Amino acid sequence: MEFRKIIGAAAFGATVVAASLASAQEVNVYSLRQEFLVAPLFEKFTEETGVKVNVIFAEKGLVERIKQEGANSPADILMTVDISRIQQAVDAGVTDSLSNDVINANIPAHLRDPEGRWFALTQRGRAIYASKDRVGEGEITSYEDLADPKWKGRVCTRSGTHVYNVALFASMIAVHGEEKAQEWLEGLKNNLARKPQGNDRGQVKAIKEGVCDIAIGNTYYYGKMLENEEQRPWAESVNIVFPNQNDRGMSMNISGMSLIKDAPNRDNAVKLMEFLTGDVAQKIYAEVNYEYPVKPGVDWAENVKSWGTFKADKLPLADIARLNPDAIKMVDTIGYNE
């Protein structure tokens, strides 16, 4: 397996010769997911099929790169995270539609594009982290509770325009309508202990340090903090709360994949996409990053199981993608980040 690491837009000037990557027994993946997450999957795929996987990894800019390369792009598959970023690839016109019985059978309809332009690979929940010392069990149970005035000065979040929060806010619009969702967001803003800043782990650290009592963060960060000696005390200071278990369930986001338009190795690309949605790959992929498989029936990692089971929101992610611009506008309208 060949990895080429590209960082940022400055790499656009570098020419990738399609002929050097494409062959009958190869497939080319452009990945925004880190190397350690995808390498075990591709190694297993090559072992089973003999098809070599070439990977170009970047922290950003791959959609623009594919668009710039045009019909001569060597890219077969794009792998990325968050429904917002996946939709950006669709909007840029670099993805192709795929109707595949194997993939459709493996991935529930709400976790794939109705037109086959993207498919979920793993799930992560948007959870609530609550101080063990200062928040009683059952004291907060839903996203709606975050706007309750009782939490004034006690909530921390990252930027309201970060894609993780945008997806959550879009789901609130889908459930409650724009007017009530904006009222809720204003309530959440009024409860902030500080200006939105940092990343999800930074919010849990702030709880440990007494800056706030409640935060919003993706579920997999709980596992990442527990495995990090410095960050373990942060995780141990909180309970992870799965919101809205009495109604719609916890809001979910995804990592996903898309078939690229004019993929030079289309048959191998489809073969890899089928593999990635199967039992073996689903278990490996979910385990390495403390995520949840998208294929029903695939067992969760043991450490993830220990956090407890939950009801997941089945809101179609295509609806969230459609409402993302409205969520961003709402954040700007109320000055959430100010």
UniProtKB/TrEMBL annotation:
One annotated Gene Ontology cellular component of this protein: outer membrane-bounded periplasmic space
Record: residues binding Fe cation: Y220, Y221
GO function terms (MF aspect): metal ion binding
Signal sequence, renumbered to the chain: 1-24
Record keywords, A-Z: Iron, Metal-binding, Signal
Domain of life according to the entry: Bacteria
Stored SUPFAM superfamilies: Periplasmic binding protein-like II
Entries under PANTHER family matching the protein: IRON-UTILIZATION PERIPLASMIC PROTEIN (PTHR30006:SF15), THIAMINE-BINDING PERIPLASMIC PROTEIN-RELATED (PTHR30006)
Family of this protein: Belongs to the bacterial solute-binding protein 1 family.
Name of the featured protein: Iron ABC transporter substrate-binding protein
Species the sequence originates in: Thalassospira profundimaris
